[in-house]
Amino acid sequence: MRVIAGKARRLPLKTLPGSDTRPTTDRIKETLFNILQPEIPDCSFLDLFSGSGAIGIEALSRGAASAVFVEKNPKACSCIRENLTFTKLAENGKLLAMDALQALRSLEGRQVFDCIFMDPPYEKGLERQVLEYLAESTLADEHTLIIAEADLHTDFSYVEEIGYEISRSKEYKTNKHVFLYKRK
């Protein structure tokens, strides 16, 4: 796994051994950031369920002003710290070593994020919990792009009921990215 583009281009990133995290492949990450590119320069980026931090680091490398990484696994947190230091992007990154919903509550009222990315463990309903929280939160407004990475079979039919519209969905072999905005 490596940084695809930007300041830290081609630098390798550490990942956790084993199956505790599912690192987004370079190919999927490149496709994702081709879609996100207009949003990234100078944005504030929130990377929930960060794993190795590869998505937030890619955003910083491509010009995001800041990135907040949220990860509760202590080994993954060490990996994120090492990757931020190695890529020389630590100055613009902040790590919150805690549960995603706890982190959202701790960030409440401090800023509105431009992009929020989440890649929760599959089939646990965590993306719905985060979306329900963000629907009433000051962390996202109608201009905030929210991206959920999920298993191909994850149902997002409920999102309109809680105040979102899906602007795009991109499917891969085993997973998908769903792009959402809060309705105005």
UniProtKB/TrEMBL annotation:
Highest rank taxon of the organism: Bacteria
CDD domains: AdoMet_MTases
TM regions (residue ranges): none
Pfam families listed in its UniProt record: Cons_hypoth95
NCBIfam families: 16S rRNA (guanine(966)-N(2))-methyltransferase RsmD
Database matches in PANTHER family: METHYLTRANSFERASE
Protein name: 16S rRNA (Guanine(966)-N(2))-methyltransferase RsmD
Species: Blautia caecimuris
